[in-house]
Amino acid sequence: MDRKFTIFILILLLLAVIGVFWWWTAKEKESEEGKSVWKIELVREGYEVIETSEGKFLENKKYGLEVKVPEGWIVKDYGTEIDLLSPETEFDEYGGVSMESIREKGACGVSVEIIKCEKVDPEIETDAEEIEFLISETQKNPAQMEEKGYELIEIGDHLALKKVSAKGKRISVNIVISNIVYSFDTYVFFEKCSQEFDKVLQTVEIRK
Fold first, then answer.
1. pLDDT (tens digit, 9 = 90+) per residue, 5-52?
2. How far apart are CA 84 and CA 56, in angstroms?
3. Rg, the chain, Cα only
């Protein structure tokens, strides 16, 4: 009985060692595979809201970004994401957008992000490189890429990649300048939200 018990304990210890080894190997592999994905910096600093005789503007002078805020809209700073929200928007107790104000009052919004990408693995694309690749593919095969929801638009002097989700509920527009991505998103709960998004995009200026 003692011998069987000893063998049983040894088997458990062996399985434990194998389990720890597998976990550590998987963790290192995950770290290696994920390092380029997470090697980005969402810009937090430099955003300002400027009031002028021409209206209210969201600016980030360091990155050359300027966006006109629609009249009456709210500017909400969520750290790395700045949201422009229509007057109907209401907020929950945590400062997030109330879904009731969207469903019942037809609130719309536009999110603005600046993302700095750093190349850390020559074999894996950064977000900026992936967007540039998609822009190139859309230029070469516009009809084929349109079927996937992609199209090219111009924002100021810059070419931008527009992506409409399969169900048409989300629209994203990305501009790449060097290793920096200027990202604009909206959720289309109502047709007017898509129209408001287009109006905001028409005011975007990037001086880089």
1. 444 444 544 444 444 344 444 434 444 444 444 456 778 888 999 999
2. 11
3. 24
